[in-house]
Amino acid sequence: MAKDFTVPPVVFPSGGTPATGNVQQRRAPTAPFQPPRPSSSAIPFMSFDIGSAAVASSAASVGPFGGTIASSSSFGGGAASFEDEEPLLDELGIHPDQIWKKTRSILNPFRINQSVHMDSDLSGPIFLYLAFCLFQLLAGKIQFGVILGWIVVSSIFLYVVFNMLAGRNGNLNLHTCTSLVGYCLLPVVILSAVSLFVPQGAGPVRFVLAAVFVLWSTRACSNLVVSLADGGDEHRGLIAYACFLIYTLFSLLVIF
Amino acid sequence: MYNNVGPQPGMPIPSGNPKPNPFGNAFYGPGSGLIRSGLGAYGEKILGSSSEYVQSNISGLLSDRQYYFQVNDQYVRNKLKLVLFPFLHRGHWTRISEPVGGRLSYKPPIYDINAPDLYIPLMAFGTYVVLAGLSLGLNGKFSPEALNWVFAKGLVGWMLQAMMMKVMLLLLGSGEAPILDIVAYAGYTYTGLCIAVAGRIIWGYSYYGLLPWTCLCSGIFLVKTMKRVLFAEVRSYDSSRHHYLLLVLALAQFPLLIWLGNISVNWLF
Q1: Residue A167 and residue B70: Cβ atoms within 8 Å?
Q2: Residue A244 · residue A214 · CB < 8 Å
Q3: What is the torsional sign of CA B129, B134, B136, B141?
Q4: CB atoms within 10 A of CB B76
Q5: Cβ-defined contact of B133 to A164 (cutoff 8 Å)
Q6: What is the pLDDT of residues A66-87, one digit of tens each?
Q7: Which secondary-structure segment (H or E) carries A125?
Q8: Record: contact A245-B123, CB cut-off 8 A
Q9: ipTM of the assembly?
Q10: B86 CB contacts (<8 Å, ≥6 apart)?
Q11: Taking the complete model, does pTM exceed 0.90, yes or no?
């Protein structure tokens, strides 16, 4: 469908008008529906220069429809283009590099780096939980619900014990607690992967292996919990024993 | 922490005031004292002060939980020595009280070895569950469901122990001890039980020696503690009745701990 637009006569400011009767039709060539451009840039608003330039250039070739679409896409309005969307992982709040950094900090059993764990997230623990369940599945045990339930219960347990011991100035919150318990599950995940290759049955090798990894987990978790929340400094041993109980419980799932 | 040491308003001292009850003619003889004061106590509670009773217990439960967690390493070590070897304790068993704001309250566990705390019972219970799981696994019967049953059985055992002590306090005329104190005292038996289960894991026959010793130690600890609690709480000190009930409490440890120590898949026995 074609629409007839009266093309206004082009008026050059230096020269005179071609026809005398077109004075009232004289106007600068602008795109339709242009909002008034503010004189000062007080309002940070994306200017329509790009849009009008595109319109002015495409008006001759595509027509007004192409012009409006180009101008609307350049300021990213309601039906935005694909390139301007946020990446999916960012929108979900999953930051793989941060997860990798945190996981790598737990991998070193001798030095605890607490600065990377300052902001807690739950996507790393979920990933570790899935890895744990996968290794248990490879060992023939379907324990998805059990492990998730035990993670929840043990993080509530650690939260209660820490805040009760720390007294008035204990400020561990449940999100941080769950995040720490989840991340420090990494040695147990490694244990379940390694124990796939150790012969079945309750031999001493399995127990010694489990003991090493459980102690690693306990050390990491108690040091992180004490350094990230106030009030736990004089209760290190007591909190470490609570963490030890939690990770021994998980290692029972792996051994037997 | 005891919020009121004197008699509660509206509740006269039970034993010094024989109420005229419809059964008054039937109670003569040496065994009647228990029944009379027991009914007297319940009469007061049923008649009108029951709301105060409930309120004082609920407020004791919900407020001031952090009193029971003011512990440190040294207290935990010494308290474990006290619970596991109560006959070796040379000091006294009474709690140190201090006047705080006009009321008499007890010192927190850091300053007083005889004060109850909730950290040790909680950790002992957790250790019992973990050791029970280990013992199940070594017998080839481990499964997460079995561990859930062990957890439930342990909770029931804890509640039974606490109820037994509470009933004993009620029978002797006053039930005003804070409920968390009773729960804490009841949970101390799990420390001895953990030792017995650990012994069973290490060498099977040691269990038959460790378990009676645990029952004995737990009995001695509870008797000595309850004696002090009763002395602080109950007005009339009728020593023969007290001693019989304390003996019953000590003897009841044996079936309870045998039931709890028998770790198997079915939870009844």
Answers
A1: yes
A2: yes
A3: positive
A4: 19
A5: no
A6: 444 444 444 444 556 777 788 8
A7: helix A123-138
A8: yes
A9: 0.74
A10: B217, B220, B221, B224
A11: no
